[in-house]
Amino acid sequence: MSIPANTRRLASQSLFFSAAALITAMGPVLAQAPAKKFTTPDGKPEAFYIFEPGFTARELPVRLTSINNLAYAPDGRLFAVGYDGRIHVLRDTDGDGLEDQATLFWKGEGDYEMPLGLVLRDDAVYITLRRRIERLRDTDGDGVADEVKIVGTGWHETITETDKTFKHRRVDDAIGLAMDAEGRLYTSLGTPNYENSWQLDKEGVPQYRRDRFRGSVVRIGKDGKAERIASGVRFTVAMQFNRHGDLFASCFRS
């Protein structure tokens, strides 16, 4: 996936703003930071602001740890996914504009290491896990998920277990997550080897192949099967559709 340098630069700045908003939302209030000057790869000066004038950060009166994903439901509930597998629902109970209550929606016990992607659609919560995408639903209305279904899988390849040029970390499996207007899910898989991009073997021969799932963006069909739609990416962390149906994806060190 080839992205022009100026597009990558703008995307990285947008992601930094998003990350800063997430961090400060869970931490102390911060004052606006002064501009940091740096130069772009083409040598042009550029100013970078932590916060644009007019933006403020307010601390939420809740304490949660290891949060890596946030998404609002249409009814105003804020879902927070943690690296430990737990999912919390945050609510603003006093109407002051800040979520002040956090309740456990999903315990994430067992094989729930690092859910990294999150999508909310209708009454369901979708998350990415190792080798699968799961759908969680609260069918009895008690605020806790009680129905779990695997809705996407099939990208694991046995060669990743036998070929020594492959890395085996959680972030090398399903990472980002998005859903299009038709309800199809999209996820991404990490690069085969972040230290050896071409997967050079002992003889120095490249083993990298574009027709494998690792290092790709994948679409899940209605039958739950995976289909590659882009390859040659490293770690596609965030994925989102705009109203026109275009899929935007931020790739870490693409």
Q: Would you kindly provide a written description of the structure presented here, covering whatever features stand out?
A:
This protein has 254 residues and is mostly beta strands. The chain has two domains: 1-59, no CATH class; 60-252, TolB, C-terminal domain (Neuraminidase), CATH 2.120.10.30. Helix content is 10%, strand content 34%. It has two helices and 16 strands. A four-stranded antiparallel sheet has the order 3-4-5-6, with no helix packed on it. Strands 7-8-9-10 form a four-stranded antiparallel sheet, with no helix packed on it. A hairpin with a 4-residue loop joins strand 4 and strand 5 (87-91). It is globular. The chain starts with a helix and ends with a strand.
Draw up the topology in text.
Elements: H1 5-25, E1 36-39, E2 45-48, E3 67-72, E4 78-82, E5 87-91, E6 101-106, E7 118-121, E8 124-129, E9 132-137, E10 147-152, H2 159-162, E11 174-179, E12 185-189, E13 216-220, E14 226-231, E15 235-241, E16 247-252
Strand content: 25-35%
Share in helix: under 10%
End-to-end Cα distance: 8 Å
Low-confidence stretches: 1-36
* Spatial strand order of the main sheet: 3-4-5-6
Shape, principal axes of CA atoms: globular
Total individual domains: 2
Any guess at the CATH architecture of the largest domain? 6 Propeller
Secondary structure: number of strands? 16
Q: Strand pairing plus helix content: what structural class?
A: mainly beta
Largest sheet entry: 4 strands, antiparallel
CATH third-level topology of the largest domain: Neuraminidase
Q: For the record, what CATH class of the largest domain applies?
A: Mainly Beta
The run of helices and strands is: HEEEEEEEEEEHEEEEEE
Number of helices: 2
**CATH homology-level superfamily of the largest domain:** TolB, C-terminal domain
Q: What is the CA-based Rg, rounded?
A: 20 Å
The averaged pLDDT comes out at 81
